[in-house]
Amino acid sequence: MTWRIVVPGSTANLGPGFDSIGLGLSLYLELTVTPQDTWEIIHLSEQLPQQFIIKEHLIYCIAKQIAEQYGKELPGCKLEMTSELPFARGLGSSAAAIVAGIEVANLLCDLQLTTQDRLNLSSQIEGHPDNATASVLGGLTISAMDANGIVDTFHVNNVDASFVVFIPNVELKTSEARGVLPDNFSRTYAVEASANANMLAAALMARDFKRVGHYMEQDRFHEPFRAQLVVNYEDIRIAAKQAGAYGTALSGAGPTMISIIPSTIEDSFVAKMEECFPHHRIVLTKADEQGIQVTTIATV
């Protein structure tokens, strides 16, 4: 038996929704998993590394960890992998790999995990629920994780908007991006930041995209501090607004940025941004509506 696992990438925060708001994107990590005696991993995408140690591969490590957590021994398999998610760019590549690794263990060990199990396990491993919940469920997720690692998620589908991501040819690891954040905020500052996050969440649920765009640009939690690490941060925000975007923010910790735009200007907007930022990869995308998908492939 062979399984096909498709996991959407994601954007997180969308400005002030720090560590709690995620959105699944139509950019995917795809695996085919075939049981066999030993582990074999084949990277089929050019952007994935061709040299690696299987026992250090994130998907193998996660699958092994989950199997052991449930008292199972992880069987061997042949894993073929393609990805549209560049590493360390703020598009949820690690969260997608974690969700995929959990599913590999679920299938090989017949763990019969529930959706809630997937949400809890992936968010616990990630340390926060934004990207992980969006990869599990797709659509818009607004989530909280308690001290015991239990995730509560408000999930909204049919996010009928267009998004454009600006992907630079540089990496920015989340650990580095967290290193520039302050440890404390004043009460007045925190109240303003929290209010902006609340308004962003409400606008997203109401699908009031003009307000979404406005509040995407009103973050106080992380973007003012991370902007210094991101190439063309302010230039992209200004040019995108002039070209008709509702708003622009860091995608996760960056360095990718993301704009929400009216669907009617997709082609002209992308063309203009490609002209303005030739050293970025400009990608038009939509919200993924399915989350992780697992299908069985018939074998002869």
TrEMBL record:
Pathway: Amino-acid biosynthesis; L-threonine biosynthesis; L-threonine from L-aspartate: step 4/5. Its EC number is 2.7.1.39. The keyword Cytoplasm applies. It is found in: Cytoplasm. Residues 58-139 form the GHMP kinase N-terminal domain. GO terms for cellular component: cytoplasm. One of its GO terms (biological process) is threonine biosynthetic process. SUPFAM superfamilies: GHMP Kinase, C-terminal domain, Ribosomal protein S5 domain 2-like. Residues 201-275 form the GHMP kinase C-terminal domain. NCBIfam families: thrB (TIGR00191). Catalyzes the ATP-dependent phosphorylation of L-homoserine to L-homoserine phosphate. This is Homoserine kinase. It comes from Caryophanon tenue. The lineage of its organism: Bacteria, Bacillati, Bacillota, Bacilli, Bacillales.
